[in-house]
Request: fold
Amino acid sequence: KGDLVMICDKLTNYENYKGINERVYRALEHAAHNDFSKSVAGRNDVDGDDIYYNFVKEGETVPLEKNTYEAHRVYVDIHVDVVGSEKVYVSDISEMNVTKEYDAEGDYLLADGKPQAIVDLKAGYFCVCLPNDVHMPMVADGQPAKITKAIYKVRL
Reply:
């Protein structure tokens, strides 16, 4: 049985993660100090293809049954809620059924199964999803709601 290694915490605690991975730390530090009001919708570069974030302004959370699990191999995802909240379902890849094999060009695979953890992510918090963490972000807590968030992509 796989072990979860995702990290969820308050952004102000980013210093606690110095030393786990240089790029992950730099992304957390950037997120903690970034003025997201200056972000453009879509891709925002921090360090070229090594660290960037996709900015979702006033996106909408999705009901669980209309959402899907994903995992990546090249990039770590760091979900940072700026305004609003969401649920993030997470499970170790060994616990899931792959429904779409890995697509190297898009760096993703799709999966289905039961979550091992459900994270209540809210503004000012982050969730780091590593390659073995199959994750389903943007899940509505009840009714769909507006959310503004940054999804940092950090190359391993």
